[in-house]
Amino acid sequence: MCAQVEAHVPIHLKMALTIKEAAEYSSIGINKIDAMLKQPNCPFVLFVGTRKLVKRREFEEYIRHKLVI
Fold this sequence. Notes:
- The protein is of the alpha+beta class and about 70 residues long.
- Helix content is about 35%, strand content about 15%.
- It is built from three helices and three strands, in the order E-H-H-E-E-H.
- The longest helix has 9 residues, at about 55-65.
- The radius of gyration is 14 Å and the shape is globular.
- It starts with 15 loop residues before the first strand and ends in a 5-residue tail after the last helix.
């Protein structure tokens, strides 16, 4: 038998994050991020089938330019 080693990519190197990862990364709540992703023309949402992911760089850029979320 061969043991599988799960590769772990640090969050700051990922291109797309789950909502939970984005919440941990940004200290913004899961519900708030989910609501942001539902907004029309959200610049950092990525749909993979029906699954919503967060484009990390665009998310960082969006937060960088906001005073209030």
